[in-house]
Every structure is written in structure tokens, then in C-alpha cells.
Design goal:
26% helix, 10 strands, 160 residues, 21% strand, four-stranded mixed β-sheet, 4 helices
């Protein structure tokens, strides 16, 4: 059993050091035949949620409004604002809504928005930067809801 604990600890270290956002849930059963079963839970199968938009909480960072904001990951990867956008729709409603409270934003992002927090700002304090993990959450959530294409983006800020 000591070897099993070492194996699971090694697996956890390998999983987390690979930069993946996994929760290690090990279900272990050992019998006389030395059969060991375990399950790695990525969390993806827990929820099958379709998000209606995204709210980026930028309060306390000094976000300034922009006609063409970009959302980036800390790695520098752009996740919104550089492609696949309908310019007629942008002219009509803008790329994002700026608001100071979440209830005001429901019209833009629907009833089930993904909410993430910006960790810093870029481009003269006009573009939120998310952790790489939160950026991946937005990308994965967008795959099923395609809310970025619909411009269902709201920035929470201290003042407008």
C-alpha cells in the first residue's frame, strides 16, 4: 500500500506540473490479486453547463473604456477581440458593455454568464488580462455557447 501512495503522489505531481487544471480524485481498491483501480477526475464531466456570456470583473484595477478591447491570458494569448467578430454588430452594440454592478449586465450576457476576475490590465488599462486557467475556462465555455461571437461580454468596473 505504501507503493500505491507513492504512485498516486507521483501522478498528482506529474499532472499538476504539466500545467493542467485537474483535481486528482483517486478511488483505490486493492485486492489479493494486486488489482488497483483509480480514476482521474478532470472536473469536465461534473458539469455540462452552457454559459450565456462572460463577465470579467475588473474592479479595483482602473479599467478604462475602449471601442476595441481585447481579453488576454497571462501567457499573452488573445482570447477575444482579434477575430471572428461581426463588424455590423460591433457598430450596433459595441464589443463589450461596461457596468458597475452585475444586475445591470444581465441583458447583455444572459441569465447564466461565466464570471472570472482579471488579474491585471494591458494596453493603457483598456484590456483585461486573465490567469491562464481562467482564460481556458472562457475558451472552453465559449465552445458550447459561442457567446464571444455574439459579443456577450461585460466588464465590471468601479466607474464608467
Amino acid at each position: 500500500m505504501k507503493g500505491l501512495k507513492l504512485f498516486l503522489a507521483t501522478l498528482a505531481v506529474m499532472t499538476f506540473s504539466a500545467g493542467q487544471n485537474f483535481a486528482l480524485a483517486a478511488s483505490v481498491s486493492a485486492s489479493m490479486s494486486t488489482e488497483i483501480k483509480f480514476e482521474l477526475n478532470t472536473g469536465a464531466e461534473k458539469k455540462n453547463v452552457t454559459y450565456s456570456g462572460v463577465i470579467i470583473d475588473c474592479r479595483g484595477l482602473g479599467l478604462k473604456t475602449s471601442a476595441s478591447p481585447v481579453i488576454k491570458a497571462e501567457s499573452g494569448k488573445i482570447i477575444y477581440g482579434d477575430k471572428d467578430l461581426d463588424f455590423d454588430k460591433i457598430n450596433e452594440i459595441g464589443m463589450a458593455e461596461y457596468t458597475t454592478t452585475i444586475p445591470e449586465s444581465v441583458a447583455r450576457v444572459g441569465k447564466n454568464p461565466l464570471i472570472v476576475r482579471a488579474v491585471k490590465l494591458d494596453r493603457f488599462n483598456t484590456c483585461p488580462v486573465l490567469t491562464n486557467i481562467d482564460a481556458e475556462k472562457v475558451i472552453l465555455a465559449n465552445e458550447s455557447g459561442e457567446f464571444l461571437k455574439e459579443l456577450s461580454v461585460v466588464f465590471l468596473t468601479d466607474e464608467i
